[in-house]
UniProtKB/TrEMBL annotation:
It comes from Cutaneotrichosporon oleaginosum. GO terms for molecular function: acyltransferase activity, transferring groups other than amino-acyl groups. InterPro entries: Acyl_CoA_acyltransferase, Bact_Acetyltransf, GNAT_dom. PROSITE patterns: GNAT. Residues 28-167 form the N-acetyltransferase domain. Keywords: Acyltransferase, Transferase. This is Putative acetyltransferase.
Length: 167
């Protein structure tokens, strides 16, 4: 059943993570993390490489990068990437919704879409991480069946780690 409270004109498009539109959305994500994290956000600490170097991680056959659009506006209001960590286990990364699009269930629709992308990669388990100050994200993940698990990566900003079995 469609989510009647979500914008009917929300569409998703899979794009290269290095495209101009994807880079703009990721830079907005990184800027928000820098503003919300008490210690700021340094991309080099996060992944050890610039965001433009991860094209292979978020590209077929091992991943995908998705942008969300409202109506005919070609400015992305949401983004997220998925990548295989190992056969059967995928990870959702860089999930972000523009402040202007929040409160309209865009994040829920984006999460559902990214989960479907993980399934298309053959994943039966989805993992993700987040930081304690991102209360809205933590609540949404728990609401959608994600369970807290022990740390599974070396992301220095992550304080909460989640997993969901899909099969």
């Amino acid at each position: 059943m469609p989510d009647s409270s979500a914008p009917p004109d929300l569409t998703f498009e899979t794009v290269p993570s290095t495209s101009a539109a994807a880079q703009a959305a990721q830079h907005a994500y990184f800027a928000e993390m820098d503003a919300r994290f008490h210690e700021g956000f340094d991309m080099s600490l996060y992944s050890g490489k610039p965001a433009t170097d991860d094209e292979d991680e978020f590209a077929p056959p091992r991943g995908a990068f998705v942008l969300g659009f409202l109506g005919h506006d070609r400015d992305a209001v949401a983004c997220g990437g998925v990548r295989l960590l190992e056969p059967g286990i995928a990870e959702i990364k860089r999930m972000w919704v523009s402040p202007a699009a929040r409160g309209r269930r865009v994040a829920t629709r984006l999460l559902t879409h990214l989960e479907a992308q993980c399934g298309a990669l053959g994943a039966h388990t989805i993992r993700l991480d987040t930081k304690d100050v991102l209360h809205e994200a933590i609540a949404m993940y728990k609401k959608h069946g994600y369970q807290e698990v022990p740390r599974y990566n070396d992301n220095p900003y992550a304080t909460h780690f989640f997993e969901k079995k899909t099969a």
